[in-house]
Structure formats: C-alpha cells, structure tokens
Amino acid sequence: MGLGGGRVRFNVGGQVFETTTTTLANAGRDSMLGALLDSSWNLAPTISGGGGGGGGGGVAEYFIDRNPACFAVLLDLLRTGSLHVPPQLPEKLLYREALYYGLLDHVRAARWGAFDGDRLLLAASVPGRAPGDGTAIRAAPDGGCCVAHGGAVHVYNWMLDERRPVSLDHSQVNDVAYLDEGTLLIAARERLGSMMEAWPCSPRFNEYGIGVWDRASGEQADFFYEPPGCALGDADKLQWLDATNALMVATLFPKTDNCFIGLLDFRQKNVVWSWSDAGTAASLDDKRVLHAIAMEDERSVCVINQYDDLGFLDFRSNAGGVRWSSRSKLMNRKVPGEESCYPKLSTHGGQLFSSMNDSISVFSGPECVLTSTLRRSNGGAICDFSIGGDRLFALHNEENVFDVWETPPPPII
Amino acid sequence: MSGGGPPRKRNFKIEEFKNRVELNPKYAERTWKVLEHAIHEIYNHNASGLSFEELYRSAYNMVLHKYGEKLYGGLESTMTRRLKEISRSIEVAQGGLFLEELNTKWMDHNKALQMIRDILMYMDRTYVPSSSRTPVHELGLNLWRDHIIHSPMIHSRLLDTLLDLIHKERMGEVINRGLMRSITKMLMDLGPAVYQDDFEKPFLEVSASFYSGESQEFIQCCDCGNYLKKSERRLNEEMDRVSHYLDAGSEAKITSVVEKEMIANHMHRLVHMENSGLVNMLIDDKYDDLARMYNLFRRVTDGLLTIRNLMTSYLRETGKQLVTDPEKLKDPVEFVQRLLNEKDKHDKIINVAFGNDKTFQNALNSSFEYFINLNNRSPEFISLYVDDKLRKGLKGATEEDVEVILDKVMMLFRYLQEKDVFEKYYKQHLAKRLLSGKTVSDDAERSMIVKLKTECGYQFTSKLEGMFTDMKTSQDTMQDFYAKKSEELGDGPTLDVHILTTGSWPTQPCPPCNLPPEILTICDKFRSYYLGTHSGRRLTWQTNMGTADIKATFGKGQKHELNVSTYQMCVLMLFNSTDGLTYKDIEQYTKIPASDLKRCLQSLACVKGKNVLRKEPMSKDISEDDTFYFNDKFTSKLVKVKIGTVVAQKESEPEKQETRQRVEEDRKPQIEAAIVRIMKSRRVLDHNSIVAEVTKQLQARFLPNPVVIKKRIESLIEREFLERDKTDRKLYTYLA
C-alpha cells in the first residue's frame, strides 16, 4: 500500500518501477502482487515494512528479487491489458515469471484473440517424436491439445509444453475427447468402443448399437440397439445436437459401402431422420460421402466426398438427396499420385471448416462461401484437425507435426 | 492444467534468472524454519515484522526445488498444533464467554489462513493440483472443523449453547443475534454438511418437540382464532430468526416443522372447534380469522382441502335447510333474496379472506348448484323474483343497480339444472307483465333477455324476443286502425288489441266468452280491418287475458272509473240492464269458464273496498246458488278503482302439475332430436354412450332423465329411425 496518491514503487532485481495501486488492482487479490499490497501485510507503521529499504519521496518501495525485463512486460500487461513480448525475450521465460506472480491466466487471455476463421495466423508448428501416423488431434477448452498416436495420447498444455503421454496399456487409440480441461476420455480398440465424443453423457458403440456412459460415475446408463437397416455399430461420427436433443450418427465410406446418416432420439429410442445412399452408388467413381457434420443451426448436415465437394442434407425433409455444391476450382490443387487423406469437416461460430490434402478451407455465411484457406508449405496432407480454446490445431500426416493457428489480438485501432 | 516445474530442457537459458542456490541439504530445513516461524508469528498477531516478498520467495524456492511435500506437510502439522492450542483456550472459556471466544478465535484463524495462503500461493497453484492435495484455504477450514468444532470438549457444548440461546429467545429473552449469526456463518463456511449435521438437524428436532408441546398447551386453552394468531406469530418469529442469524436454506425446513407441529397435527381439531371453528367464523363473517386460517392451512398438505370440505358440507347443509323449509317457501321473492344474500356473504368471504381462490369459488358454486336443485320450484321462484323486480322492485333504481341485480339472478340461473322450466315460467310471467303493461323499464327487460341469450343461446330467447316484437307491431297496428277508421267508429268504446303470434306466447286455447254487444261491434270492425290488411291470418280472441276501463255511476251520483279484466267487464255490463242476476244467469249470458267466473265474481263482490257487486247470501266464497246485485252504496276515495282478479301469485297445485307436464312434453322432441343428431354422426352406438352424450348435449337446458331417454330411444325404434343390433342388444344402429 503505497503512499503518495496511490503510487507504488518496486525495485525488481535492481531496476525501479513505479506504478499505481489502480494498475496493480488489475492483477487481482489472488496474485502475488495483490497479496503484497493487501492491508494484512502492510500493518507496519513504518514504510520499510514492505521488505525493501525505505524509498525516497515518501513512496513505499517493495523489493522483488526477480527478472526486471519480464516484470516490465507483465506490468505493461496490467496497465494496458495487452501483451507485448520483445523479440529477444523467450516466451517460456515470460510464462515462468507470470506463474511466479500468479499472472499466467492474464498472459493466456492476452496471448491470442477470440477465434475468427478468417484471421487465423500460424502460431507454431510442433514436431512430434512418436513413430507412425497420428490418428486424431483434439483441442482442449483452455487452448491445449492432445494427439492420439498409435498406442498413446500426447498431451500439450496451452504453452505447447508436452506433458507425460497417456495410454490405456498402449492398446491402439481410436479417438480421444476432452470432458473438461482436466479430464480426458480415451477410446481404445481393445475396449468395446471405436469412438466417442464429449457430451453431457458420452455415447460410444459396439457392433450392436450405441451405449451411453454417465459422465460423473462412469457407469453405462443407456444402450441404443441397432435397428434393422441402420448401421450404428460401426459409426464414423457421433454428434450430439443440443437444440433437437438428438444424436447424429454417420456410418460412411470407406468403412461401409453404403453410407448412412441418422438422427437418434434416445428418449423414444427411435430414428427420427435418416439418409442412405444404398442403391444409388454403383461404381467407385460415384460421389461417396466421406465425412459429415451437422451444421450449427441444426437444420442440415454438411457432407464431403472424395472430390472435395461439399454437400448438404436437409433435416427437415426425409426424402431429399444430397445437394452438392461443386468446388472444381479447388480440386485443381489435388496432385495426382500424392498420398492423400480423407477430408474432414468441422464447424465453429457459424463457419464451416474442411480439410483436404495439405490445406484447410474456411467457408462463411449461410451460403458457405469459401473465404480463407490455411496452408503450410510442408508437412504433407492434413489427416485431422480440431478447433477449441480459440485455436485451430491441424495434424499432418507426414513428418508427425501439428500446426497451431490462432487469431491475433485485435488491432490497436 | 499448468503443472510440473519449468521446462528442464532449456535450463541453460533460465539459469541466469534463478536464485543462486547451493544444493545444501540443510537448505530446505532452514527455509521451512523461516516459514514456520512466520506462521506462528501470524497466529500471534505479530506479522508486522515479516516480509511478504521474502516469505513468498522462500515458499516458491521450496516448491521449485521439489520440497513441495515437505512444505505442505509442515504447514499441516504446524496449523494442527496451533489449532490444538486454540481449542484448549476455547475450552476454558466460562459460560457466556464461550461463544465469544470461539468467534474471536475463528476470526483470527480466518485472518491467519488468508495470510498463510498468500505466502504459499505458489504452492497452491502448482504443487497442490499436480499432487491432488487440498488447497490451503480448504485445508485450514477442514483442520478447524476437525480440531475445534469436532473436538469432544467443544462439539456438544457448542450445540447446547446454540440451542439454549434459541430456546431463550423463543421464551422472550433478548440474545446476541450478531454473535449467533457469526457462529452459524462459521458452520456454513466449514461446509453445508457441517452446518446441517452439527447444528441444523438437532435444531429441527428440538424445535419439533418444543412446538409439539406448545401446540398441545395452546389447543387446550385457546379458541380457534387465538390459536391461529399464536401459530402465525410463531411462524413469523421463525422466519425472522432465519433471516437474522440462520442460513437461508433452513427457512423451508424450520417453517415446515412449525407447520407440521402447530397446524397439520391439529388441523381437524381446529376447524371443528366448538363455538370458534370454521363454521362459526363463516357464520360470524370473521374475515381476519378466516384469512389467517387460509394462509396458515395453505402451507400444509391437505390444509385447504380440509377447509374447503368443511365449508362445502356447511354450505350444503344450510342451503338444504333454506330451500326445503316450507315456511320459507311461502314468499318466493324472499326465498330468492335469501339465496342471493347467502351467495353475497360467501362471495365476500372468499374474496376478502381466501384471496379469491378459484378452488373455493368452485366449491361455493357446486354447493349452490347442489342445493338449489333440491327444490324443483327454484326455477319458478327465480322467475318470480325477476318478475317482482321488473314490475315494481326496480322503480327509482339506476341502470347500474338494475344490472347488478339481474347479474346476480343470472348467477342463480346458472346453477339451475332445469333451465327449460325457468324459460317456461319466465315466458308466462313476461306475458303477464307485457299484456297488463306492468313493465317498469323496457331496457331492463331487454337487458335480461340479452343475458339469457348470452347464457343459453339464440334458441332459448327467440320466443321471448318474439313477444316484444308482437307488442311493438300491435301498437303500430292500433294506431293505423284508428287513423284509417276513426270516422266509422264514432263514439263507441276504445279498443286496444294486442296481436299475439301463436306459439310465442304461453296461451291456452280457450273458448271466447260472450262479449257485450257494444264491444262486439268494434271487435268485428277490427277483425275485418286486420284481415283486410293481412291476408291468410286467423284471429282468435283471448278474452281471458284482456283488461278494460269502464265508467260507472253509483247511487249518490258518484262516478268512478273501474279498471277490470275483460271477464269482469262482461259481468258488469250485464248490470246495465238489470240490478240482480243469479250465478247461473251470469254463466249463461257470458259463457265464462266456471273457474274463471268464480274468481271474477269473487273479486267483484267479496273484496272489501272494491265490492261493486253485492252478493246474497253474504259469504267469502262463490256458490252456484248465489245471486248478485249492483251495489249502489259503493264508495271509494279514489276516482279510479282497480279491481284485481283474485289470483294466486304462485301457481296452484294443479297448475303446477300442468306446467310440469308441459315441460316434460316439450322435452321429448328435444331429447329425440339430440338422439337423432348423435346417431346420425356415429351410426352405431351403445346405450350407455347415447345416454351420456344426450345428457352432455342437453345439460345446458335441463338434466334429462335416463329413463326418459330410454323411452325416447324405444319410440325412435318403433318409428324406424333406429334399430337394435341383431347380435348385440345393447347396440343401436341409425337407419337413414
């Protein structure tokens, strides 16, 4: 608690900083600086009680035995709310100092901006050490991610530090999902399931249908048996639709010859909507649905075929076929003979994302107009990507590397 | 998740910022000693000599160098030691100082905990989550709970003290509410489970036994009203207590204890309490007590149901007495007024005391519906009441007053099951009013018709409206008649004819009497005029319904104008040519039906002050051997003398039978029409369903008797509208 009109003086590692109590209040009581200035630690009648020598000019001076360069950056963050890291200052060093002051969350919040598919910049490329191809990448709610890789899951925090890998006795991992920042769900092949996602209760399935597990107790709570004509047990994609209270299940090429997409109502235990291409696809050259995702308005489902065409199915009509929108212009990029990955789809904040080969396309607006393309020159085809914690993670098939795309903080003016 | 230490692989970079630390094994021990000392100083209120920055850095270094476990363990044991000391100092506190001491120490502990947490903030952020330990603040609370609140010397003493203070307050003493609040807040801070298990549960038990005893005591010595007052006060006290020094979550629990002990357990005894229970409150219009009862009973299961049931049975009982007491049936107007008063009284109770509760309104309505229909003369009486009001009762009343009265009548009307009987009577009464010109206000009459129309539909009132139309056209016709024929008529008597449409009016075919020749001439003139202007019509004279004004000169030259009925006029005109006539003569000359003639003669000869005829022998009743003379001694102060016909205002017994029979006859085609309507749409239906549907369709007008419905079905089968199913005798089929 400085005197002199709320002014506070710090001597950090020999360098003197002067600021106001108002600025420091931005740090919050639950930080080192908040506690330092709290009245319970400043009962001493003499100014020198603050730990440092008595400062000049009637202003209290606190001595802190830390790196002054980092303190300058953090003080600037408290003053302005934005983070500016000088080029010569290593980020990890800043993070460590922020942790000391209890300001890591402030740094995290200022480090990158709110997600916007059209303003993404490549923030980092993280090489992995694991052999073989990655299976899946999933974004954590706090900006970290995990990569399923053979028999293990590699977990990264938002600072992209790798933590100890997790595994289920090193059996083949099919999919992973974040229940919350601290809880990870893993589906491995030895177990019944082949895939799952994070919902209030987590369904996964076996060859007979789809089971539902309670999130808190871990007990199986429900089971949806496969009705005739609907392939549920081998589904590629499960998606919970909040507004309609239904589960979208998609069983797709090449796992099956006939693609099936259905909406399940778990309370009624019936299929409320379904689509299948059984009987329409004759040869391998026909357009086959490779991935599907329900749009955020939950009125339609977006699908993609082997020619990277986007197609739409309307949930409100039961008879309609796929409405394909041609993207021949984009197909030109496809290099024949090169090893490619099946395309993937994702939605976020009203935008649609689709991966094809080595790039990710961003489509915006109700008509899904192509507005951005994310591509790195090397790394090979993208086998999976995931959006979360205001970041986009793209896992490359070759070289075992994943890219992190972020939206930069908003411009100054 | 931000765990672990800083990345080790970049050691070379961060080394220059790190504190120079010799890896001296004694380092950790020494650092901990510093921190331990600080913790003790904090508890000793001696923190002013401590440097936060230094302590924070020390704790940071311990965690950084993997001594987190030692730091955490040290904290736990140091704090435990301090709390044990505190526990001893609380234990020795005497009597009333016990809570004070506990509270003071709790405040100290909180303060210390905050400061300790400040120092160990880095450990809290990094070591605690990664090793799944309890955070420092929570640890401090848990230790306080285990070593202070759950210490055997304090645990029961604390509970007893709290309960004792609450008991004292219930008995009227003033206690330190602020201190109580701090202590309960402490228990809540330690976790809802601590508050509930160590205080709330025993508190509720003690309260239950307290109120169980108190309610026994109250119910022995208080009447219902006072008991409810006391219960209400107790309930408010408990809510006040919760708001002042208990957790808000306790309110529902403690009020439910009071409700159960004070109200639910004594509910039946309270409402049935002699001389002060619910019925007495209703009789005496004790709005305050009733409102209190309603508000208290509403809080418990079946509370309102108990009130409602008792109120319903009371209403039905008193209503039944009201409608079946032969004494009260003598005056129909009074009878209906009593019903209306009863309704008003209870409407007000429900409005004022029961918050206009819909279920109570329904109970009131169903009770009225129940007992009004116990007396099958209710429709007649209600019609008579309206008749009375529309004849004279509304004189001087404003339009709004009229509306209010009519609305109230409509309310009673709604309760009637036999609405068609009402219609029948209403028609009769309306006809009398219109023909005798006794209607006070045309607007009021029309308003009543509109109300009936909205209630029962167009059909119900079409004939009533027809009566009004007839009155209007008659007036126009008479004007036209006199305008066109006045020169033909000369000085003869003036004729005023009401032309009534057959069917709209409750007329019985009755042979016309012999009219005096003077009248007959003009009647014939009118007949030829009317038939001349309206072709294809038939006129029948209803001499039983007319009136006449005649001038008479009596003995001393007194001239009077007599207002009499047509029958009376016919009789009187006979005395123009003779002074005395026998009953037989009169009957022969006039051809008036015997019963009407007797009534007419009775009113002319036997009513004091209006006896324009003299009868021999003098007696009250008319016999066929009587002789009648012109009474030239007749005197009256009035120039105009109205001689009423002696008629029972209420129907006589045979008339009643007749009306009933006519109603039954009218119902037959309605029931048949309903059956045919239903069968036409359903084609095949079983007996019980038909009965149910017919009842449903007709209940707006009357409640058809199942036996009658069965008879109608049989009749329809005879007339081949329906047939029985050949296999299932209970099924009927519609024959198109």
Describe it.
The complex is a heterodimer of chains A (413) and B (736). Chain A has 6 helices and 27 strands. Chain A has helices at 21-25, 32-37, 68-80, 91-101, 104-111, 328-331; strands at residues 7-12, 15-20, 61-64, 121-127, 134-139, 145-149, 152-156, 173-180, 183-188, 201-206, 209-214, 220-225, 237-241, 246-251, 260-265, 270-276, 289-294, 300-305, 310-314, 323-325, 344-348, 351-356, 359-364, 369-375, 382-388, 391-396, 401-406. The two termini of chain A are 34 Å apart. Chain B has 736 residues and is mostly helical. Chain B is 65% helix and 5% strand. Chain B contains 31 helices and 9 strands. Chain B has helices at 11-14, 25-43, 52-64, 68-91, 97-119, 121-125, 127-130, 136-149, 152-170, 177-189, 192-221, 224-245, 250-263, 267-271, 278-283, 287-297, 303-324, 332-352, 358-372, 378-393, 399-415, 419-435, 442-456, 458-489, 517-533, 566-574, 583-590, 594-605, 653-682, 687-698, 706-718; strands at residues 547-553, 559-565, 580-582, 613-616, 627-630, 640-642, 684-686, 722-724, 731-734. In chain B, a hairpin with a 5-residue loop joins strand 1 and strand 2 (559-565). The longest helix of chain B has 32 residues, at 458-489. Chain B is elongated. Classes of the chains: A mainly beta (413), B mainly alpha (736). At the A-B interface, helix 2, strand 3 and helix 4 of A face helix 3, helix 5 and helix 6 of B.
